[in-house]
Amino acid sequence: MKFLIKLVVIAVVIFFATNILPGIKVADISTALVAALVLALVNMIIKPVLVILTLPINILTLGLFTLVINAILILIASGLVPGFSVDGFVTAFIFGIVLSVVNYLVNRLIKK
């Protein structure tokens, strides 16, 4: 149940990010749901491998390199989902920060 709540919240954030961040385009809310699902799958499958491979850089930057990894994963997800596009790395980086903050807040609210 928690996974579905997170998925819907992230889909809503993706859908409304098109109004806030220039460079993010989503066709409709169903595309945002698919993008959220693909992003969750990419985070579960690819992110652990990337984090382990970049562990020395991550340690040197005190974990801030994880934001770069998140931006790369967002770009991968935008390439996989038709109707969802992110124009560039900087946009994906900012969008990754927004998603991280929202995910943190959702996790805090769901635990209570």
Automatic annotation (TrEMBL):
Pfam families: Phage_holin_4_2 (PF04020). The keyword Cell cycle does not apply. The chain crosses the membrane at residues 32-55, 62-82, 88-106. Keywords: Membrane, Transmembrane, Transmembrane helix. This is Phage holin family protein. It comes from Candidatus Buchananbacteria bacterium RIFCSPHIGHO2_01_FULL_39_14.
